[in-house]
Amino acid sequence: MSKVLKNIKDLFKNTSIEGLKFCIFSKNLYERLFWTLVVICTLACSGYVTALFWNRYVSNPKRITLKTGFASPLTVPFPGVTICNFNVALVSKINNFLNKLDGTPEELNIVNETLSKWVAVEVITQTTSQINSTNLELIQNILDKNDYNEMRSILRQVTQTCDELLIKCSWNKKPIKCNKIFEEIYIGSGRCCSFNYVPETSNRKPVHTSKIGLFTGLKVWIKPEYNTRDFAGVGVIFHDPKDFPYKTEARKTLSLGTLNYVHVEASRKGCSSTVKSLPISQRQCIYEDEKKIDFFRKYSITNCFIACKAEVFFKECHCIPHFFGFGHDKPVCTVEKLSCIEENNNVLKHNCDCPAECEFDVYKVVASSTKILPTNNTIENMGDLVFINIFFNIHHRIWMTDTINTSIYLWSSFGGIYSLFLGCSFISIIEVFYYMVGKSIDLNMMTDQQKKLMPTRNKIQIQTFKIEKQPSKYPDIPFTN
What we know:
Helices cover 37% and strands 19% of the residues. The protein has 15 helices and 13 strands. 25% of the residues are buried.
């Protein structure tokens, strides 16, 4: 214990930390108390400021800066474009479908009443509340007998095909067949036609364009069939190519007989390597390869919510709704399951674990339209057509998210704090280690060596001999080897 106290005194006497030597070696008691109080206060202040800086570092405030406002148009892929006819079902096609079915007039009449309810809605499940479950079971039995087991097979019979809907297409000022760039997809609005959507089963990559400005990008002439002109037109959904086209808030409505010009302002939100090195709890976002979700190869918050919703449907209804064009390993819901779909269609998003994305593309869409003016060269009835031109109008912007505080900033802040309050540095830590640990080891080693060098106590045995007086001989002197 005395050795430890001696080391502490040596530390206080020789340390570079200001004020410690006066706590012990001041001659006056009041001076020692004063300097002790000063050291305690400076330690408390430095600890408090250290905690403030540490909390600031852990909370990790971030800043978003504009890296460039003139990035190449090839930086961000062209948005996905999904076109849907307002009319989920067409009366003429319903009649043709009923003619194909085998059943009694009463059975076919029930099927006709159900399908007719699809005519004036944008989402099929909206009509489910108007149909009792008994009729749904009866309709399903009729459809099963005619090999129409699930909803998509029925929609193919009563909706407009993509070849019928899209009559003329152009990509980057070059004419192209619409069926080469559009593919059929099923969403809540029925059967739709999607451009540049990359589903989970596809190995192709999203298309890009190097061109900007009017009449570049995608141009499509659309001819939607309709039951009544009051409910005629198309809905266009703009989305990220990797996202399933489910966002209704990104939907634009196009009326018959209009020319529509849609310019897209694209931007990319990225993160620095410093942000990526942080744990997820600190950066509060994830990269597309850090979380696996069912039905999709890459993560996005949109796909996560859709996958979550699909899982709810499968758990409650034991099938995947027809408007989710994925989950090919799971059964597709039949007409009989429409009521179950409607009951679970309003699943709250906060029930799903879908954190935000760190890096993603944003498409801001601005549309303008005008009426088609008839000309002498008009061959078809232009009033029944819709024209849309989707293009990039400016160069892309790239936004970069970076941390305000780094580990270098943290250490330099700590150094400034303790230098300000205590006048110490990293050398002071080495001094404490030396006096409390290193010097104790040296003292112990010195003590052991001193023990070895101390003289040992030898026992000397003295023997006495009796010498007889013999003058004629030399005396025998005892000796030892």
